[in-house]
Amino acid sequence: MSRRDRTTTPTRTPDAPATPAAGGVGPVVSSAHLAETGLPALSEFEFGLILASHAFERWMVRCMAAAGVPDVSALDVLILHTVNHRGRPKKLADICLVLSIEDTHLVSYGVKKLEAAGLVASGRAGKEKTVEITERGRSMCLRYREIRDALLTKPLSATALDGARLSELAAMLRGLSGHYDQAARAAASL
Asked: What angle do CA 163, 148, 131 make, to 5 degrees?
């Protein structure tokens, strides 16, 4: 094999997709070099996840602004809804656990911003700091829900995507998150 042949012939693993048919574009990925491994569909999934996560973050921030709470981050919105969940005070550690956030400082900062806006209030349960929703915070969460229902839930309900399929996708994402967490732990030990 000549040097030219080695540099122009693509390396293909057994599970990699064949070259697309004439006019085809192949898998839609953001990093083709990552798709050249044994599971190219994972690269397609990751690109979809990147796009979906950014779109979801934009949506949360804009929906909360429309509800009357501008100048919050996507994480602030997640913290607010987590604190509002079931109407019980939450420990900071529990918020981090539920949202799978390792850096407690990020959550602490978000809680301080939400507290300054009058949406949550801090308290104590023994030695631990707790956070609970205020009436204003509950009201903003309800307004968010109304806007979400009008702009997202109802239009999605009119599509072919049904609730059972969404539940399957959610279960798949939760399962994959475990694989990514395990891989992250392994990578940290290298």
From this structure: 100
